[in-house]
User: Fold this.
Amino acid sequence: SVLILCLTCSSPLGKIWLMLMLLLRMAVVVLAGYPLYQDEQERFVCNTLQPGCSNVCYDLFSPVSHFRFWLIQTVSILLPSAAFSVYVLHKAAMHIVRMHCLVHGCKENKGLSRPEDLKELCRSAVVNRSDCGAHNLSVLNFSGAYTLHVFFRTLLEAAFAAVQYFLFGFLVPERFSCYHSPCTSTVDCYISRPTEKSI
Assistant:
């Protein structure tokens, strides 16, 4: 399945699909997750008047904010893509410089200290491409780096799914029973909108 994902995302349609998935994920987290969980602690009602008991029970029920967890997950999933993009840009720029040196020869005193130098280098490489023989041209291959990037993304998705399962589970219960100091006995707490949250 990773190979199919790799082949799909390497095409223009796959890149559009990847961006839509990221945008849809952010839209779901921000537009659906935030309003659903912003008042979670206020609506976590326990059948006790013992001071501090409700706070302790809520901390046991939800050790990390769901919303913050999903934001961290989304940003972490973007990191391999950002690293891959930086790697591709760096390799492509180095390839342009190398091709220019092959065509025109590099002089020791000519540096690329200014952005204008790099723009001129790119223009001259495009204009003078007829000077290059077929044996001088090469195509950059990023399939290994792309496969590694997809592997890390998949690994992060699986790790975050496992962490979410162990922290929260995948179903939100209607009632959460808790017995922890300062609660003097078993306390039942009720979660707001459990069905909607489970979905």
About this structure: The longest strand covers residues 175-178. The chain has one domain: 7-104+144-198. The beta strands are 45-46, 175-178, 187-190.
